[in-house]
From TrEMBL:
InterPro entries: Cell_wall_metabolism_enzyme, Dup_hybrid_motif, M23ase_b-sheet_dom. It comes from the Bacteria. Residues 361-456 form the M23ase beta-sheet core domain. It comes from Sphingobium fluviale. Pfam families: Peptidase_M23. One of its GO terms (biological process) is proteolysis. Keywords: Hydrolase, Metal-binding, Metalloprotease, Protease, Zinc. The keyword Metal-binding applies. Its cofactor is Zn(2+). One of its GO terms (molecular function) is metalloendopeptidase activity. This is M23 family metallopeptidase.
Amino acid sequence: MAAAALTLPATGAIRSFGRAVPAPARPQHWRESLKYWAEEVDLVPDLGRDVGSLTWWRGLATCAALCFVTIKLAPDLAPLPGLAEAPMTAARYDEIRSQMITPLAYGSNSGRHMGPTELVSPLASTPERPMIQLFSSVGESGGLSRALARAGVSSADGREVMRTLGGEISPGSIDPGTRLDITLGRRPHPKAARPLDALSFRARLDLAVDLKRENGALTLHRTPIAVDDTPLRIRGVVSDSLYQAARAAGATPATAQAYLRVIAQQISLERIGAGDRFDIIIAHRRAADGMAEPGALLYGGLTTASGKKLDMLKWTHEGREQWFEASGVGKKRDGLAKPVEARRISSGFGMRFHPILGYSRMHQGVDFAAPTGTPIYAVTDGVVSYAGRHGGHGNFVKLAHSGGIGTGYAHMHSIAVYAGQRVRRGQVIGTVGSTGISTGPHLHYEVYKNGQTVNPLSVKFQQQSLLAGRELKAFRARLDTLKSQARGSGVAVVPADTVKAAEDRKVASR
């Protein structure tokens, strides 16, 4: 059978399994050509793939063409021509220099300065002021001599000042912050220091001094100043805070804090509220020229809104300043101090086998092991009732305390007190030793209650000073006198609204 020839249709259609597939249309316009290239042709192929293919070479050509166009369109980076400034003449330089800050730095006057001419002749030496008046102040460290040196006073003049003041005024007693008015005179030659011609300062609240150079030497002139020592009284009403109310009424921070500590001995500060009245009296010195010097707190009072009244006065009792309430009751002191600094207790209180006597017996104290010479301290205030040799105790000291309490210290190497002497808590009364019946250096410490020994480790009694008899009468007389004197000082009561307004001003100023 003869094979049939395949003939393509004239229309360009392709037969496929009995169906005709139309051929792709060719672009008839340039816009269609661009669209065709954009959609069908990859102009930016990946140059890392198919290296050497026609697509790769087309992408390389595109990259090179873009680089060429970028370089050709780059701006020119050559420098732009400009006009050079003409060289500055001497006259122009002098004109500019007269308006610079350099002349001011060298001490000349401000303003316009003209250059020198033939009518101006240079000076052989610059004239200086015949005197310089300045002031300095005494610092926290170094005292008067350091302040004079900082002000430019020569060391020779500084030593002369110290010699002149030495017999009358101690330079170390001058308070920090004291102002020194200094006058320095004309120096004999440019390399010499200016001599001290005059020095004035406030040596004390009641004394001003002037040192003046007369006939080549400094002469001291004193100016006494009258001082009023009347105590200052500050009273007011509490609004929100007792401390803020006291500060608003005129108390210094130190005075207000000291007052709070004293009041807290008798009443909790948390219980003090609005409407309570405070009363403060401090030592106060006021000079005739108005300068004042506040002192220590002497009295602290408080009256609560419910009517409870508290009066606290500083009083010297048994050689020590303490605060007492108006009834004569002082501050409570809890517990006992440690009698010796020891690392361990070598023997406790109770029955034990005696290492020397060879039998069991009651050990009526506590032994603290410590080297010979270690200080022994009084555990609390008391009076020495015995000091000396005491049988097996060796060197022995016994102290009597208030409330029927006593303490004993045995086997001491040395004794530093005597019978009848009053001692304070923490005072050294002797040193550790090994006298009497002892196997080595240690302190045997005993505590007595109504004459009977008790375990020292179980005793933590309270002590409270009490005034009685003539001392209580003198205490109350001093309290009345102080309040009457301070009342005459003219310090008015500060109302609550005044205190509140002062507090509001402080808050607003912040």
